[in-house]
Amino acid sequence: MRVLGIDPGYGRIGWGIIEGEKATWKHIAHGCIETDASNSFVVRLATLESDLQDVVTKYNPNVAGMETLFFKKNVTTGLDVAHARGVMLLLLHKNGVPVRDIKPVEVKQAVTGHGGAEKTQVQHMVAMLLGLPEKRMQDDAADALAVALATSAYVRKK
To answer: Which pTM does this prediction carry?
Structure first.
């Protein structure tokens, strides 16, 4: 089973791929898709779609997990991320990849055992669970790997 985790955005989108079954998961790849802020929003969405398609084509995930949106203050940014999220959901659907929406608290709970964990705790556990070096990785990629791990917990239950 190959799982794609996505930390959605439109300026920087984290992605992570893990593979395994039951309680044994290994890191395959991770990274960030970055869009150029000098481009129009539509061009940025097109870049996101193209780059995510490359990831899906290369790694062929069986399932994807995507963090749900959570924002308190900046509604405009939230709406832009929602548009980007729609592009990603449609792309995954067209590629036959089912998507599990995961709340940020569920990601923290699955990875650390505590829904109120700090970002550094989540990153530490991602590195430990996947046998990655403790060096600091891009926040969005680490978050995406955490989403993939949380999704794997859901997949195990099925």
So the answer is: 0.92
Encoded amino acid at 153, one letter: A
Structural domain tally of the chain?
1
The mean pLDDT values, 10 residues at a time, for the chain of 158 residues are 95 96 90 97 97 98 91 69 95 98 92 86 90 82 95 72
In Å, how far are 82, 103, 104, 112 from 157, measured between CA atoms? 28, 17, 19, 18
Q: Is 19 within 8 Å of 2 (Cβ atoms)?
A: yes
Angle, helices 75-94/41-59, rounded to nearest 10 degrees: 40
* Nearest C-alpha neighbor of 10 from the set 64, 62, 69: 69
Range of the domain at 53: 2-157
CATH of the domain at 28: 3.30.420.10
How many CA atoms within 13 Å lie on the side-chain side of 39? 13
What are 133's two structure tokens? 């070096």
Asked whether 75 and 63 are in contact (CB, 8 A), the reply is no
As given in the structure block, the two tokens for residue 14 are 């984290």
Rounded Cα gap, residues 137 and 47, in angstroms? 23
Which amino acid is it at 124? H
Q: List residues with catalytic annotation.
A: 7, 67, 140
